[in-house]
Design a protein that fits this description.
By secondary structure, the protein is of the alpha+beta class. Helices cover 38% and strands 24% of the residues. The protein folds into four domains: 169 residues, Histidine kinase-like ATPase, C-terminal domain (Heat Shock Protein 90, 2-Layer Sandwich), CATH 3.30.565.10; 109 residues, no CATH class; 114 residues, no CATH class; 166 residues, Trna Endonuclease, Chain: A, domain 1, CATH 3.40.1350.10. The strands form four sheets. Strands 1, 2, 3, 4, 5, 6, 7, 8, 9 and 10 form a ten-stranded mixed beta sheet that branches. Strands 16-17-18-20-23-22 form a six-stranded mixed beta sheet. Strands 11-12-15-13-14 form a five-stranded mixed beta sheet, with helices on both faces. It is elongated and about 125 Å long.
Length: 658
Amino acid sequence: MTKYYLDFLPEHVERSSVHRNDPVKAVFEIIWNCLDADAHAVVVALKRNEAGGITGVSIKDDGHGITPEAAISEFKPVGPSWKSTPRSVSKKEGRPLHGKHGEGRLRAFALGQDVQWVSIAEDTGKIWKETTIQASGSELLVVDISDKTTTSRASGTHFTTQDGDRLGKLEAEAMMVKLTNEFAAYLLSFPSVSISYEGRTIDPKSVMRSDFVSDLAWEFGGVEHRAEIRIIEWQDNRGRVVYLADQSGIPLEKLDKSPASDFSYAAYIMWEDMPEHRGEWLLEKLETEPSILHVLLDMSLTFIKDYFSSRRAERRREIVDQWKRDKTYPYDAEPATPEDQVEQAMFDVVATAVHSNVPNSPNQQRMTLTLLKEALQKRPDNLTSLLDQYLNLSLEEREQLEYLLGDIGLSRIIRATANVSDRFRFLRGLELMIDDPEANKLIRERDHLHKILEHELWVFGEQFNSMISERGLTAVRDRHRDVLGLEPVSGSVRRADGSLGRVDLLLSATTRESGRNRHLVVELKAPSVDAKSEELTQLHSYAEAVARDSHFGGVQVLWEFYLVTARIHSSIVNQTRQSNRPPGLVSEFPLDDGYGSQIRVWVKTWAEIIEDNRQRLNYYQEHLQTDHSLEDAKEYLVSHYPTIIPEAFMLETDPEGT
């Protein structure tokens, strides 16, 4: 072995030292050296200790090898190599070259303290010679090169390292993704070349969804320049990366940011002058004028964003159709109303924007999509921030969602539509509990009906937004005074027989209505109980206790008492059908408080309450359908998401008016 001291410039060693702690980059560099040597097969294996830790790397190739003379000329100097000459193609097959700076041998120390190349090549006399080159991290600028020996083995180079440290990044799962991104363009261009890593072949074609190439043209300094951009989209999640590459697509540098976070891809900005501009993109903030590279980068990144915006639209319709085929789509029927159409179309936009976070398991997928649907219905105006909290939406997607759910009032439309639909469903369920002979036997007033209605106060009127449940008359008085901001009073409220009484529900409107406040006391009866004189007498005793106590006034107030039942017994039906009163109004009398307060006692059937609510909801729904913002929402969805929106929806909405 003969020692050779490297000829170097300090900046070369300093630049290469940045990568001596990057084993991934070092593996890339050695593989590129193999490919530059016209290798057709590159085999990478990892060395491990007894505990399974990685201690070194073995990389074999079948390239043209390194002759003893070339070993001296190529390993001794540090700096631009023979590859940096204008020829810039490999020696035998004329392939494009990657390495041009001659610093790869120093980067190899990221893989181990001791490194070695054993290479077989044909010398000028057509005789196969074997040469061994060794180096140690303890003597960074010294290489040992063996005397040449004759051999009968085929050409190629075997690179090995040992005593490596912190090589966990080289585990196969992570490396397969990185290797695919790094070498995809080269392997697709040269299908006769193979790279294997720990027994697994790097095969970009098998995991590739698409391969797109486009020309780029721009002007700088009065001169027109041309480049190409290549975008390889992956079928699975292999991350995303944008490379600066030479005209052959060989990566030279990797940008630190990549657009379109919801796609997995490798993009190559390919320009013949790219090698001359290495590192220049990092200096953008320091430059007062944009360089030619920065002009190219701005144009390329805009192209990538536009490309994936188009791909995103194409993909979303496919995703929705697949969910429907898998029966995980949360809408089981076609939309019946314009509001339903807008809501379902908006769901498609939101769900497909975050589809990469939706589980693949059918059960989990349906559950996730159903939860997303409910969030869209119940909290649409908070949906963007909710998704941002858990998912990595792109800026473009956030802006679109914020517009859809904010500026055109779509959040109000969706929430209102969902509320109306939920209320119609509740009324159907309530009707079943009351009317079905088998169901109403099981429904108890306190255990079931009472607890359900505590959460559905709208059944008795939209104005009621305050409630107490199952409290005595004293608590009713105190709540009345608290709602109106009146001073509390002492003493209890009793009925005529001296009992305290206990009301089922007290509902209060906290805003004045027609110049007066309003309270509603509801006495509920189980579906199996008919309203008779006994139940009506009980309700009257509550009303009379209020009438006798002026503390239930203090301002003009209307006190209403409802006896709510499934059926009215014949013994009291005449009291609910008095000619001078509205149906159901049994009695009315003043509260002697000096403010003109009144008390009314009603008997209401569930059928009447359900029908009143249905009519009110039908009116609300009809009004909603004529809301101009609904048309705005439909037109926006059609114009921005034509590949997502169902065809029937598009036919009904013609933004051009044709």
